[in-house]
Specification:
By secondary structure, the chain is an alpha/beta fold. Among the domains are: 114 residues, Rossmann fold, CATH 3.40.50.10090; 127 residues, 3-Layer(aba) Sandwich (Rossmann fold), CATH 3.40.50.10090. The protein contains 11 helices and 11 strands. Strands 3-8-7-4-5-6 form a 6-stranded mixed beta sheet. Strands 2-1-9-10-11 form a 5-stranded parallel beta sheet, sandwiched between helices. Helix 9 runs parallel beside helix 10. The protein is elongated, with a radius of gyration of 53 Å.
């Protein structure tokens, strides 16, 4: 019995030792098994990361490929190109109309106005000239062709205006039944027309709009407008001295309502003919008159070798101030066909005349005559 107890004890001890060893052995195995899944997890995470990176790369590459292929942009460009072609086709449709208009223009082309030629009379006197009276106002500066002529030829030259300009009253202007507000364009022939146009507007309490367009016969008149308005190229047009130079500008503004300020005795028939030819809407407004100046200080005697006249109004003033005037040996120079005609109506002799092919200007005509007669 004792031996059996000892054997059971030994077996129990061995079993216990086996269990302990088994536990000891099992623990490291468990640790190893626990460590192994950790490694596998890291591998999986790495794999997942690599997969995510790959996915991201693949996702990033896909839009890049899409952006590189700009198919919709090509379609948009194609759409933009099509309307441009349509616009070009429209322009081409309009171009023949413009050409047709240009073809029609020569039908109303205004020929350049040629001045009527004037020649001296056959019985013109050839006598020495020492004194000369010019029927124009005295020039403000010494850079005047007549003063330079006097210095070259050593003669005496005086200036005296035989006529003066008077503006009509606002009452007289109203009698013409002209409404200034209906006109948005003005044709100005001289500085007198500029002065009296703005004077009438002030008397009528009419503020000229800034949009008003001005058509001047020459550049000097255009720049003179700076006295009353701000000079703007878009609304001021000027020619080289004739209405024919303004024909193209007038044609381009044919929709405007024009006002033509003139004197009571005017020579704007050529201007009126051009306006009628262009079929423009216009009205003629008399805003000033020419009156004979007072020459009573001469006491009925003109002690000059030669008188120079430029207008029929000057001839009228001569016989108004000197009703008993007799020409005798006084030489008379006439500029223009109308002035020459007015002199012949009073049975006066024309000794110097202009314009003509030999002497297109009055200064040249005077110089040629005086040089010829003063040589004798």
């Amino acid at each position: 019995m004792a031996v059996k107890k000892k054997a059971t004890k030994k077996s129990n001890v061995a079993v216990k030792k086996g269990k302990k060893t088994a536990k000891k052995v099992a623990k490291p195995i468990a640790k190893k098994s626990a460590a192994k899944p950790k490694k596998s997890s890291t591998k999986k995470t790495v794999a997942k990361k690599s997969k995510s990176v790959a996915v991201k790369k693949s996702l990033s590459k896909k839009p890049l490929k899409k952006t590189i292929k700009i198919k919709p942009v090509k379609k948009v460009v194609a759409k933009k190109i099509t309307p441009k072609k349509a616009i070009v086709s429209k322009k081409t449709d309009k171009t023949p109309e413009l050409k047709s208009d240009r073809v029609k223009e020569p039908k109303i082309v205004i020929p350049p106005s040629q001045p009527q030629l004037v020649y001296p009379d056959k019985n013109a006197l050839k006598l020495r000239v020492r004194t000369l009276l010019i029927s124009q106002p005295k020039p403000e500066s010494e850079k005047n062709p007549y003063l330079e002529l006097a210095r070259r030829l050593n003669i005496k030259v005086d200036f005296r205006h035989f006529i003066k300009i008077e503006g009509i009253s606002s009452k007289e202007f109203r009698q013409q039944r002209i409404n200034l507000t209906e006109h948005n364009a003005v044709i100005l022939t001289s500085r007198n027309a500029v002065d009296h146009f703005f004077r009438v507007c002030a008397e009528m309490r009419y503020n000229v709009p800034e949009t008003t367009k001005y058509f001047c016969l020459n550049e000097a008149t255009a720049y003179y407008l700076q006295k009353y308005i701000q000079y703007r190229k878009r609304k001021i047009f000027f020619g080289n001295g004739t209405i024919s130079d303004l024909a193209e500008s007038l044609r381009k503004n044919k929709e405007e309502h024009f006002l033509l300020p003139v004197a009571d005795v005017h020579r704007e028939e050529k201007i009126i003919d051009v306006l009628d030819l262009l079929k423009l809407r216009y009205k003629k407004a008399v805003i000033y008159r020419t009156v004979s100046a007072d020459l009573s200080d001469y006491k009925g005697v003109l002690n000059y070798d030669m008188l120079v006249f430029f207008t029929p109004a000057g001839i009228k003033s001569l016989f108004t101030n000197f009703p008993n005037f007799k020409q005798g040996e006084i030489r008379i120079a006439a500029f223009g066909a109308a002035t020459a005609e007015a002199l012949r109506e009073h049975n006066c002799r024309i000794d110097v005349a202009s314009p003509n092919p030999q002497t297109p200007s009055m200064v040249m005509a005077l110089e040629n005559y005086i040089r010829e007669v003063n040589k004798r």
